[in-house]
Write a structure and sequence with these properties.
two-stranded antiparallel sheet; 14 helices; 18% strand; alpha/beta
């Protein structure tokens, strides 16, 4: 990527709050803490921030109002973004373009969520947002505990709901089963991904799940949506993550080693459930990956560490294929060959990912990539860390963002 005038975009700050079952706080609270931590990590003050990009998960509260919560004035860039798990990558892309264009000098990107509640399962929390509210408002304005009328089900959406195809678990399971039927991928292949990422998580002091697991543990974990079992599915976490994007010149005298944003791309297929398409076979990574690598001026073999979105084990497998780490249909043998654990040849999801580390949508792979490129990974730090590939996946394999980060410009 060629940029003149010292305006190459870099990530100069990273802020992570406590993650996991952290109760009694709102998403707004997590977001403001993450921003303050990221700004301090960079060696800046809030008064230096002139751009803010926000994204929230299931509980809301992380939007334009954060400007007032933080007391930020006269921002040159302010927007709320939503591309689900691809949003983090997209925010960094737009922040980088803003820095390049001189629209803003110091842009903060933040994601936060607080879906977990005491005494309620993670699945129940995520499912609750799809159910009608239990209170309605009468014409006079008073609340009623009468249930609202049941929604009318029309067309394709009605067919999906009546068939029980509701929520991400079921729909990703359909995608995984299609891949299994086409290529012979097995549940043991998925189990090898879960085991490898838990091995990485054991080296990460902030990972939520650090106890070792085996393929037998994977087989014995309870069914969620065939073919997925519990250990195929990501965590649900309360918390927040923020990053600071600025220019190479501005970062020269800041606190942390700059992480260069050398390449980026998005792809939004928009063909979910269309007849005779590649649902479960090909994702947006197949387009956004090569485009981001070309922009960065590197090839796949130059990648030292890959942080891939892992809402499910299957998402890792199909992304590995689409990025070209293995041939299409060979993801199962590749992950089962020992290639992706701490002793494998591909340093993949080095913090445990969303399966064992923490679930902050696309901020999970992004934050770990920043830590690795900086050389701050501690026991899990990879030896070669000059170039990192970061993926974000959103919707049901329908939104994708790719970043290529580096220790220097490419």
């Amino acid at each position: 990527m060629t940029v003149r005038g010292g305006r190459r975009p870099v990530i100069a700050g990273l802020g992570l709050t406590e993650m996991g079952a952290v109760y009694g706080r709102t998403a707004t609270s997590f977001a403001t803490e993450a921003i303050r931590l990221a700004v301090a990590d960079a060696g800046l003050a809030l008064t230096n921030v002139d751009g803010l990009l926000t994204s929230n998960g299931t509980t809301g509260g992380v939007g334009l109002g954060l400007q007032r919560e933080l007391g930020l004035h006269d921002l040159r860039l302010l927007s709320e973004m939503q591309g689900f798990g691809s949003t983090a990558g997209s925010m960094v892309q737009f922040a980088s373009m803003a820095v390049q264009a001189g629209m803003a000098e110091v842009v903060v990107c933040v994601f936060a969520d607080a879906p977990l509640r005491p005494g309620r399962s993670a699945g129940d929390v995520y499912g609750a947002r799809r159910r009608p509210e239990t209170l309605t408002v009468k014409p006079g304005g008073s609340a009623s505990d009468e249930p609202p009328p049941k929604p009318m089900l029309h067309g394709w959406s009605g067919l999906l709901i009546s068939a029980g195809a509701i929520g991400a678990n079921t729909l990703y399971a359909l995608a995984a089963r299609r891949h299994m039927n086409r290529f012979g991928t097995t549940t043991e292949d998925f189990g090898n991904i879960a085991v490898a990422q838990r091995e990485w998580a054991a080296l990460n002091p902030i990972a939520s799940k650090r106890d070792p697991i085996t393929l037998e543990d994977h087989r014995n974990s309870r069914p969620i949506a065939d073919p997925f079992r519990l250990l195929d599915c990501c965590l649900v976490s309360n918390g927040g993550v923020a990053v600071v994007v600025t220019s190479e010149d501005r970062a020269a005298d800041l606190r942390q080693p700059p992480v260069y944003v050398n390449g980026w791309a998005q792809c939004h297929p928009g063909r979910l459930f269309e007849h005779d398409e590649d649902f479960g076979i090909v994702t947006g990574a197949a387009r956004s990956g090569p485009a981001a690598l070309e922009m960065a001026g590197v090839k796949l073999q130059d990648i030292d560490v890959a942080e891939l979105y892992d809402c499910y084990t299957f998402t890792v497998l199909v992304s590995l294929e689409d990025y070209g780490f293995c041939e299409k249909g060979e993801g199962g043998p590749f992950v089962s060959s020992g290639a992706i654990g701490p002793n494998g040849r591909l340093k993949l999801n080095t913090g445990g990912g969303q399966l064992s580390g923490y679930y902050m949508w696309g901020m999970t792979p992004l934050s770990e990539a920043i830590i690795q490129v900086r050389g701050h990974g501690g026991d899990r730090q990879v030896e070669r860390h000059d170039v990192a590939l970061v993926s974000g996946n959103g919707g049901i394999l329908d939104h994708h963002a790719t970043l290529v980060l580096g220790t220097g410009p490419s």
